[in-house]
Amino acid sequence: MDRLDKEILRLLQGDATLSVNDIAERIGLSTTPCWRRIQNLEKQGVIKKRVALLDAEKLNLGMTVFVQIKAGQHDINWLSQFAEHAAGIEQIVEFYRMSGEYDYMLKVVVADMKAFDIFYKKLVGGIQLSDVTSSFAMEQIKYTTALAIQ
Question: Are the CB atoms for 58 and 111 separated by under 8 Å?
Answer without folding.
Answer: no
